[in-house]
Design brief:
The chain is mostly helical. It has one domain. Helices cover 54% and strands 0% of the residues. The chain has 2 helices and no strands.
């Protein structure tokens, strides 16, 4: 475990999939369920932001003279 990680954060991987704070980091071989869910949530947010950005561009193109 890293020196800058609090002992109470040791089990944080169970809830948020933050691998740097995981107690199993030294022997982890594959992504856990929490990490997969974290990646999916990040991907969803990025896709939502990209969709909103594309919609804004479409709206601006309609307004331009």
């Amino acid at each position: 475990m890293s020196a800058n990680i609090n002992p109470e954060d040791n089990e944080r991987w169970l809830s948020d999939g933050y691998c740097a704070a995981c107690r199993r980091l030294s022997y982890c071989r594959k992504p856990c369920k929490a990490q997969k869910q974290r990646k999916q949530a990040i991907l969803r947010e990025l896709m939502k932001a990209a969709k909103n950005k594309a919609q804004i561009r479409k709206d601006l193109d309609k307004v331009r003279i």
